[in-house]
Amino acid sequence: MKVSSPLWGEERGEGRKVSQMEYRLLGNTGFRVSVIGIGSLGFSRVRAAPQEIEKIVNRALDLGVNIIDTAYAYGEGEMEKAIGRVTKYRRKECIVLTRSHLRSPEEFAQTINESLQNLNTEIIDIYQMHDVTRTGEFEKLMSNGVFNELKKAQKEGKVKFMGISTHASPENMKKIINCGKFDVITVSYNLINYQRQTIDGEDISITEKEILPLAKKRGLGVTIMKPFGGGILAKNPLSEVKISPIQALKFVISNPCVDTATPGVGSIAELEEDVKAGDPRVLLSKEDIARLREDAEKWGPDFCRNCGYCLPCSEDIPIPQIMRLLMRYKLGEKDKKDRAKKAYIDLKVKASACSECKKCEERCPYHLSISKKMKEAQEIFE
Questions:
Q1: Which strand (E) or helix (H) includes residue 171?
Q2: 349: which residues sit within 8 A by CB, 6+ positions away?
Q3: Distance between CA 138 and CA 89 in Å, rounded?
Q4: Eight-class DSSP state of 172
Q5: Pairing verdict, β 32-34 and 23-25
Q6: What does the domain layout of the chain look like in residue ranges?
């Protein structure tokens, strides 16, 4: 079976099973991207071995996914290398987006060259300046030579399109978009409008109302990170009826200003569930949105997203599970509180085992005071 490729009119290979997938133009780049891509940070969450990553990426391409989001910072290039073992043989089937977090021109230029080697490619489709978020950071990178290195790489044919990823304030996001220097922008967008961390300044509600439409107007391609709200929408601990990954993703891509969402995936099973959202025949009901909106009102910024980056715990404490039970207890009625207590009693390792080493807090991307949460759980449940 021959299937028309979303890449420049080329053809995919024969004999591969391809799911129903919608494709959209990525801004003014000319690329037609699958509305569901894959984010490689999810591989870190489950500590996937390179061989497992290869299997997931190959399966994604078989299912019609054609955009892969990664970064040099993910394992200092190790994620890129694992992906590169696939792109070495299937390069024409995918659009590769990677990025560098380094802030000196020399280091930034070096990572571009390393990424080319890691990914087994002669040209990177989209290369971004990674997490340009802090106040003044954008202006610094545009003037200290980092952007010039990116532009130089494009002129030399190492990079096709230039991009940026950010959790910045709406004001700074508008500066980035309006400067006219970038082809693709990556921002957070999800149903629960959470901030990655309070110091970032991003406001997802303003992203929805102002930033995404502005990017669309300016012709930038828009790729979405954190479509599950850092993982919580996929494991929704507050609703009696679990919100599925399909519904969460469908909400994101139902916005016409969004070109693609790249959720982190940790297994083939997760991947196969996520790509169902790319089927244009799959619809998200108003009731689904209304129920999740209602739940979201109960959540503040200080909640665990169940991403699992805090693990492994040196004391084998199931931190995300305890955090979920704590949330259920604090926000639930009496019956939910009783169920949370019972579930806690059944845990093999309790919060009281915490040694307060705080290694989990160093790994937590949301800077939660996990040791304090463990003390709180101990006081409530033990």
A1: helix 170-178
A2: 315, 316, 317, 318
A3: 36
A4: H
A5: antiparallel
A6: 23-295, 319-381
From the centroid of its chain, how far is CA 352? Answer: 32
- How far is Cα 357 from Cα 371, in angstroms, rounded to an integer? 8
CATH topology of domain 23-295: TIM Barrel (3.20.20)
Residue 372: band (very low, low, confident or very high) from pLDDT cuts 50, 70, 90: very high
Tens digit of pLDDT for each residue in 228-271?
876 666 555 555 545 678 888 988 998 999 999 999 998 999 99
DSSP labels, 34-70:
ESB-EETHHHHHTT--HHHHHHHHHHHHHTT--EEE-
Those residues whose C-beta lies under 8 Å from the C-beta of residue 205, and which sit 6 or more positions away, are 193
| Count of all residues that appear for the chain in the document | 382
Single pTM value for the model = 0.77
Q: What share of the chain is helix, strand, coil (3-state, %, to 5)?
A: 45, 10, 45
Strand order in the sheet with 260-261: 38-39, 67-69, 95-100, 124-129, 159-165, 184-188, 221-225, 260-261
Q: CA 134 from chain center: how many Å?
A: 19
Q: Rounded CA gap, 117 and 115, in Å?
A: 5
At 49, list the tokens: 């071995």
What is the C-alpha to C-alpha distance for residues 149 and 153, in angstroms, rounded to an integer?
A: 6
- Is the confidence at residue 94, as pLDDT, over 50? yes
φ/ψ of 129, rounded to 5, equals -80, 125
HEC sequence for 214-277: HHHHCCCEEEEECCCCCCHHHCCCCCCCCCCHHHHHHHHHCCCCCCEECCECCCHHHHHHHHHH
CA 56 to chain centre: 16
